[in-house]
Amino acid sequence: MNRGSADNGAGANDQLLIAEIRRRNRQVFEKIYKQYYKMLYMVAYKYMLNHESAEEIVHDIFIRIWDKAREIEIEISLKGYLVRSVANAALNKLKKDKLTEVKLEEYTRLETDARQQPADTEDTEEWYEKLDTALEGLPPQCRKVMMLSRFGKLKQQEIADQLGISVKTVKNHLTYGFNKIRLSMNID
Amino acid sequence: MENTEKNDEYAFGLIIDQFDGTLTEEGKKELAQWLASSPEKMKIYQGFCDLSKGLEDLNIRKNLDASGSWSVLSKKLDDSEPEVVLRTPRSGNMVRYAAAIVAIAAAGIYYQVYQAPETFSTAMNEQRSILLPDGSSIHLNGNTTIAFNKHKYAGHRTVSLQKGEAFFDVVHNDKNRFVVEMDEVHITDLGTSFNVARSADDINVVVSSGVVKIEGGKAHAEVILPAGMHGLYKTGSGAVSKSVNSNVNFKAWVDKKLTFNNTRLTDVASLLGKVYGCKVILAQPSLKDRILHAKLNYADADSAIQVIAQTLDLKVEKNGAQFLLADK
Asked: Which intervals hold domain RNA polymerase sigma factor 70 region 4 type (chain A) (predicted)?
């Protein structure tokens, strides 16, 4: 209700921003890019599952906007437009790369998710910041185990071997870490 | 009770095994039983799944570099920029004159309607963000008024803060400095984000990043404020002074990041009130001197106050925008 987000009157601001892009205002374009980059990258990444393709898709969308700003009609919000463009571009690229039916089904589901995303992307940014803070707040050894497990995708046995501790200790750290973060994220 | 907690802890272990892909058939059954034992468990399970996914994404996000990516894109844009071709117009003079007349008429109307500066105001507990044409942004706290001329802004980046508090996040441009005007006092950005609070008696400036310059007042003084400094202008004497900023929470009203270092609960309550536009009441006088040591970052008052209550073992009662903190 009383939030510092820039969402109030986003429509008018978005129109202003588009007008600036049409006037080839590179500063504004840069600001928009940096503001939405991470979020859009993650949308693309969820489809492509590799860095180069995700980055390329986001770049292509922005190059198109820069070149064709005059033709762009934004119905709801710039953010919504960007997310939809990235999701569609990713989907098209996957289709071109000849996907199997099963995979395509999975991506269609993802597409629905992506379409639902715009409304709370600002919260998403906040959510990840909070997650990072919660992770940083764990005791050092516990954090290390959590990072090896989630970031490094190591199994419990592999973590135990790497740190020279028992599997039971690894599991205790993970249980504690997950639950602690969960509680501080208010997910329950 | 203790048994339930033990059960939960055991179940958390099963969920983690499931993430690893090492959950046994026996484990699958146990997990299913636990999930079926109450609807609450399903929510917890969902929470674990969200976290697992979230942590994986966090790792990817942390390695992303928006500035680096922009540099690459920026180069691509330069490469794809079409060359400008100058053409001699072939259309007849009449057409051009007609077009010119229409343009002049339109400009006249445009001038009358749009040349006046635009004013933006917020009500008592309202906050608002304004994005300027150059990508700079201004966050307005409650009871604040600013004005700027949208149509002169491109060549003349001046915003006047008439009253209240605002946080400025400025896209720096050496050739076209961003200036906040407050009658005889001017603040010029030298690459920056900063907070300005203006009352009838004084103007408080705290620099979050970069450098600003405060000019004016009766002595026409010029004070340079780097990040972390606090500048104070006294309307009565017209003097400008500077000191190290000791208020870590100066922009909490914008980003909702609150840091309490051995802070008395009575001060915590008053700050929460300012940041969230709510009223926090302490039920017992003895609570005033309770000490809080915490870093909080919550979008709304409810979560922040819940966490504080948990930390200090208090109970919360909510009534509209009013919170009552009491001993258990």
From this structure: 129-175
